Amino acid sequence: MAEYKLEVTTGDRQNAGTWDHIYVTLIGTEGQSERTELDNYGTDFSTGTTGTYTMKTSSSLGKLLLVKVEKDPFLILPEDEWYFSKVVVTTPEGEAILFPCYRWISRGELVELRGGKAMKGFEEDHALLTDHRKKEITLKKSLYQWKIMADGLPQIIHVNKQSELPAEIRFSESKSSEIDNTKTIIGLELKLKGMLGSKEKWERIEDMKKIFWFKKTTISEYVSEHWKEDDFYGSQFLNGVNPNVIKRCSELPPNFPVTEEMVKPFLAEGTSLQKEMEKGNIFLYDQKKMDGITPRTYNGEPLHVTAGLCLLYMNPENKLMPIAIQLHQQPSEQNPIFLPSDPEPDWLLAKMFIKNADSMDHQAVQHLMNTHFLAEVFTVAALRSFSVIHPLYKLLFPHFRYTLHINTGARTTLLGPAGVLHLTTLGYDGLLELMRRAHSETTYSSLCLPENITARGLESIPNFYYRDDGLKLWNIINSFVKAVVEYYYPSDSEVLKDTELQDWISEIFTHGFLGNKASGFPAECQTVVEVIKFITMVIFTVTAQHAAVNNGQYDYYSWAPNVSLLLHKPPPTTKGQSSMKTILETLPDVGETVSFVAMAWMLTKKYTDVVPLGSYPEERFDEPAPKQMMKEFQAELSSLSEAITTRNSRLEVPYTYLNPAEIENSVAM
Questions:
Q1: In 3-state terms, what secondary structure has residue 66?
Q2: 3-state DSSP call for residue 645?
Q3: Is 226 exposed, middle or buried (0-12, 13-18, 19+ CB in 10 A)?
Q4: pLDDT at site 74
Q5: CA 644/CA 654 separation, integer angstroms
Q6: Looking at residue 151, what is its pLDDT?
Q7: How much is the pLDDT for 177?
Q8: Computed from CA positions of residues 56, 62, 64, 66, in that sequence, does the dihedral angle turn out positive or negative?
Q9: For the chain, which ranges sit under pLDDT 70?
Q10: H or E element: which one contains 392?
């Protein structure tokens, strides 16, 4: 007679427990146990509990291969899904083996769990496990299929509604109810104030401070006080929500005829534009990819998109100052170059139109496409390609939590024809075209932060906290990934033999980057070094980069004069014709403004079931080595978090978005 001890853990999610009968069968190399009900005296499988059970077999089952778990109804109670976290089986020989599950199980469902050491496909040493692995991946390929969202864009999961997603990757009930409650409370407040859907124009800029009673942040308050200031405007290109657009300018574009005389008053004494370009102190914002996109119509008339250019100067006080703005790509008499010395309303409007274009680029390209939709590609490819026992699946899956759920919803609530982003100047069709153009130019190196910074010539620009914090994070993530990958791949030959890894990378290239070789994205990886870099890029994109472009949205978007996704009036074509009244008429109406502000609050609110970067509450690895690597990763992140907090205590406008304590472990909102 042999005894197996089972420690069965029910998750601590809302309503995770079950009244149903749970049966287990153990399968080993020497045979299998009888189907045995797990039943102790009293209540079993309550939320957040671990129960210990004993199973007896006539003899040892040999090496334990699979644990089969079944859930059958108890009496005639209604269905109650069970969130089964894990079972640890201690064999008669004294070996404790982890079998992770971490998913919802429905009535009548049977799951077969793999346990023990993480295994690559070519390492399987038993025919039963080889067959089990093949069936698992075949099933996952049917559960997770690709669909074209729009030509020229990354492909997406094939489902249309969040309810069609498998339960294990949907939001928890607590998160769903928290989001619904937040929407309801926001809607009620805005209705009570008569702002929701209001077509009224703002009478005074100060009235925008009354949108919400209590939803204020230190930075949102700062923005409302300092939005007109040129140095604050310039700083947002470095440390605002869209830090990936400006480049060092060593030569003016031929379509941007800024002269020495124009900008001389705004440069340090005794220098010139040419000298400052040679010193590396001149920077360019150029939104040429937006040029020629048809904006949406409003009241039967087309709105106005300004694919503009902005020249910026890093002055001797280390402040990045806008010194010249041209609102359209082709210079003409109706497209003057605006300067800080122009009448204040003209200069403010010029800056606002640049920010309007920048905000649409930020939301559609940098935020939605380059974090959310790429995260979806990485996730779907991983779910289709890897067995759950694969070491890279165990490493990556925590960084894909909730991504498919939030994206499936966002395509309706944000980007869809009835979504908030449909209200933008470009509208739904215009934003799709912008994304299409941007994606055709997206490169592998642009998603690798060290190469991105070098390519834009921003290695030494001062007070660039996105760069400083981001590069440190990149290196910490890279060190962690290197340790894990080298542990499981001692040589390049292991990489070449791993068909699941190669399938994952190939699917990303094919369905994410549409087979575009010019993107520089690999269609395969041949060396350990290449795998480390690729996985570093993936984890950085879905954690740090998403935080950088998401977490500051309410801070900067809640004050419409600072940045607005929609402007009504055409941009100025001559100087001296505008007033503060023009600015109020140009800004969105009350209802449109509060829609954008509410969206920013929803996307940046901290929800209770957040998992911070580097936290792995689900125990997926059974080996001590990767567990130790995770601890070291967490220690490095904690140290960086302290350093950033200390630095921020000395800053007038702190940069918090890349503090590891503020970064979520996945694109989950």
A1: strand
A2: helix
A3: middle
A4: 65
A5: 9
A6: 96
A7: 85
A8: negative
A9: 74-79
A10: helix 391-396
In single-letter form, the type of residue at position 600 comes to: A
| Farthest CA pair distance, the chain | 95
**571-608 confidence digits (pLDDT tens):** 999 999 999 999 999 999 999 999 999 899 888 988 88
Q: Rounded to the nearest 5 degrees, what angle is found at the Cα of 73, between the Cα atoms of 69 and 75?
A: 150
User: How big is the CA angle at 64 (ends 619 and 119), to the nearest 5 degrees?
Assistant: 55
Which residues contact residue 225 at a Cβ distance below 8 angstroms, ignoring those fewer than 6 apart?
none
The reported pTM is 0.97
* Whole-number pLDDT of residue 608: 83
CA-nearest of 650, 647, 644 to 663 is 644
DSSP code string of 103-170 = EEE-TT-EEEEE-SS---GGG--SHHHHHHHHHHHHHHHHHS-EE-SSTTS--EES-SSGGGS-GGGS
Output DSSP code: residue 42. Answer: S
Question: What residues contact residue 47 under an 8 Å CB cut-off, 6+ apart?
Answer: 10, 11, 12, 13, 14, 15, 16, 17, 83
3-class DSSP state for residue 242? coil
pLDDT tens digits, 120-135: 999 999 999 999 999 9
Shortest CA distance to 339 belongs to which of 247, 246, 230, 236? 230
CB atoms closer than 10 angstroms to residue 577: 11
Are 600 and 558 in contact by the 8 Å Cβ rule? The answer is yes
- Residue 267 CA, distance from chain mean position: 39
Contact 425, 294 (CB under 8 A): no
Residues 242, 247, 248, 249: what is their CA dihedral angle, to the nearest 10 degrees? Answer: -130
Cα angle for residues 579, 582, 585 (degrees, 5° grid): 155
User: What SS3 state is found at 52?
Assistant: strand
Q: What is the rounded CA–CA span in Å between residue 607 and residue 154?
A: 28
State the first-to-last Cα distance of the chain, in angstroms, to the nearest integer: 52
Contact 23, 72 (CB under 8 A): yes
Of 508, 541, 529, 530, whose CA–CA distance to 613 is shortest?
541
Token pair 């038993």 is at which residue?
A: 126
Residues 322 and 234 sit within 8 Å (Cβ to Cβ): yes
Residues whose CB falls within 8 Å of the CB of residue 174, separated by 6 or more in sequence, listed in order: 13, 14, 608, 609
- The 3-state DSSP class for residue 99 equals strand
- Residue 306 burial (CB count, 10 A): 26
Q: What distances in angstroms separate CA 524 from CA 319, 481, 502, 530, one per listed residue? A: 44, 18, 6, 9
Nearest 5 degrees, angle CA 455-CA 153-CA 548?
50
CB-side neighbour CA atoms (13 Å) of 569: 16
**Strands 247-248, 282-286: pairing kind:** antiparallel
- What is the rounded CA–CA span in Å between residue 352 and residue 330? 19
**What span, in angstroms and rounded, lies between the C-alpha atoms of 507 and 515?**
9
pLDDT in the model for residue 415: 80
